[in-house]
Design goal:
The chain has about 180 residues and is an all-alpha fold. The chain has two domains: about 60 residues, no CATH class; about 90 residues, no CATH class. It is about 80% helix and about 0% strand. It is built from nine helices and no strands. The radius of gyration is 21 Å and the shape is globular. The relative contact order is 0.09.
């Protein structure tokens, strides 16, 4: 009788709370996938991407509430950045300031120029080519910080430089996007 009631409650929860079902599926698949990726020496971020491909709408279609999961993902990124922010030392980050500004600026410039040249070869207009260049020149702050955190390299000299560069990229987005407003 208890097993029957347990099954009924389970079905009730799964049918009436699809987000809960999706979270259970997400956790149930991501834990073994991330474990396997970790054993193979691959970053956990790649394991999360693989999990999304496996259970998402282009894989086994196990996740039904994609928009809700996307909202939860945004909350997760904010929490990740907050957690990593707790570990940041502005004094140490300031030490790489000039180097980060120069490196980040050159990275944005060179990447944008290379993409503009490639896009122009494929007959794209200059404004479109420039937009492609700016987009490709940006790095994901959340992904960079997650990888550095997983490797325990946030407080290393190259970790601080990487953080400085992604902060420069984040700041550079503002003047790049202003003409579009």
């Amino acid at each position: 009788m208890t097993e029957r009631l347990g099954g009924v409650y389970y079905l009730f929860l799964m049918e009436n709370f699809p987000l809960l079902r999706d979270i259970i599926i997400l956790m149930g698949v991501s834990i073994p996938v991330i474990f396997i990726f970790h054993r193979l020496g691959l970053p956990t971020i790649v394991g999360f991407l693989a999990t999304g491909v496996i259970i998402g709408p282009h894989g086994f279609k196990l996740i039904t509430e994609v928009s809700t999961v996307e909202l939860l993902a945004q909350v997760g990124v904010v929490m990740l950045l907050f957690t990593i922010g707790l570990e940041l030392s502005f004094a140490k980050l300031r030490n790489v300031g000039k180097e980060a500004v120069i490196s980040g600026g050159l990275q944005i410039l060179f990447t944008t120029v290379i993409i503009i040249i490639i896009a122009r070869v494929f007959k794209r207009s200059f404004p479109e080519a420039m937009l492609f260049g700016f987009i490709i020149a940006q790095s994901s702050t959340a992904i960079i910080l997650k990888i550095l955190s997983d490797r325990g390299e946030i407080d290393s000299s190259h970790g601080r430089l990487c953080m400085g560069i992604v902060i420069v990229q984040d700041i550079a987005v503002v003047p790049i996007l202003l003409p579009g407003l």
